[in-house]
Design goal:
The protein is built from 15 helices and 20 strands. By secondary structure, it is α+β, with helices and mostly antiparallel strands. The chain has one domain: FAD/NAD(P)-binding domain (3-Layer(bba) Sandwich). It has an 8-stranded mixed beta sheet, with helices on both faces. A 6-stranded mixed beta sheet has the order 8-2-1-12-20-19, sandwiched between helices. Strands 3-7-4 form a 3-stranded antiparallel beta sheet. Helix 1 runs parallel beside helix 5, helix 10 runs antiparallel to helix 11 and helix 10 runs parallel beside helix 15. It starts with 7 loop residues before the first strand and ends with a helix. The structure holds flavin-adenine dinucleotide. Flavin-adenine dinucleotide binds next to helix 1, strand 2, strand 3, strand 13 and helix 9.
Length: 403
Amino acid sequence: MSARDPRIAIIGGGIGGLTLAIALRQRGIAADAYEQVPHLAEIGAAVALSANSTRELRRLGVLDQVTAASCEPTELIYRDWRTGDRVAAHPVRNSYQARFGAPYYGIHRADLQRALSGALGGAGLHLGYRLSGLQDQGGTMRLDFDNGHVAEADLVVGADGVRSMVRQWVTEGEGVAYSGTSALRGIVPTAGLPSLPDPQAIQFWMGPDAHLLHYAIGGDGQDVNYFAVMEGPREWHAAGSVTEMDQDEARAAFTGWHPAVTEMVAAVPHHKRWGLFVVRPLLRWHRGRAVLLGDSAHAMVPHHGQGANTTIEDAITLAELLAHVEPDGMDGMMARYQGLRRARTRKIQRSSWATNGVLHLPDGPDLAARDRKMARFPQDFAWIHEFDALQSARQAARTAAHA
Ligand SMILES: Cc1cc2nc3c(=O)[nH]c(=O)nc-3n(C[C@H](O)[C@H](O)[C@H](O)COP(=O)(O)OP(=O)(O)OC[C@H]3O[C@@H](n4cnc5c(N)ncnc54)[C@H](O)[C@@H]3O)c2cc1C
């Protein structure tokens, strides 16, 4: 590191913060990542990784470890909520990777987190540091933490999630918006789901005002991660994203659904209801020497499974642009980053929300159009999966260098 290298402070040691720290280190750039929790641990949930992020995880050298802990779905299947009939089905295993150049995986979050934090090796990661104050000192930023620590940085990256404090600072007050939908989630051993057809497929069960998505996780797909989304409640009164929901209420929401669905919901004894919160498309992603990344910039409903994937794209883009920035070029670099990331993530945010209505249609004549849409899914959404964040950042850095 030369004396001219910027001092970079990453706020948040989640998927985005860890990926950025690894990508920067791979480019010879040191960074400090500050995470509020004292231990990195993600409880009881999984994530689906698509080619637009797995190609980057391969470049970062973490894909082998991710692969060992992942399950590659056999197919993507859409089903009717009551009969279980296949509405549309598309092969994944053996064909997705050939088409998009990288795999599609279901993985436990703890395994992904372990792969990322293992690759980082703790270098520059400060646990138990909760950012509580941010101040522009004219060219540098002052950071205050709850534990009394004070730091100074040339660039602050807000990778601090959906309820981001850095976003509040950058946008001067933009908070989160409740989507009007909520979810149940759980991980269930496949062996406990006798009615489930195609247990190693990624499947959407679509019905009136709700859907249930599941996919297998773990190296041999022994568990199923499910995520059941319901319309409502109309308003969210809890302070955070999670409230308690008792088993009877959870079962009632899926009464009359196919036994594969009711078995999954019944298999988890104590439910939490997750309010789905989004960040409305932002005008600005940076202010002063602070820039946003991941959920802090573009939290979306998870119907395309793209929150984590686009967060990884952001991290690679920012790292690559930072690797080419001149000491006096930080403002231009942040503008290029916003230019590269805002339109794409906005498009995915909007498309994810539009999918909510499609997945929750009542029985009736509109289902025929829905079914045609589901049959076209691989063609219509190839633009999400084929995207190459590193190539697009390299191109932008080259263009800027020749301008
Ligand atoms: C139920 C559910 C299911 C999902 N499923 C999928 C999926 O299948 N595929 C997919 O791609 N995406 C999925 N997502 C979205 C995905 O989880 C997020 O998009 C992703 O985790 C965003 O990464 P991030 O690093 O921006 O934020 P996070 O992973 O939330 O990390 C933010 C970090 O910042 C820390 N932090 C916050 N404030 C401070 C502070 N003041 N000081 C220091 N640290 C702080 C937090 O502790 C946290 O560790 C899902 C989301 C939900 C809610």
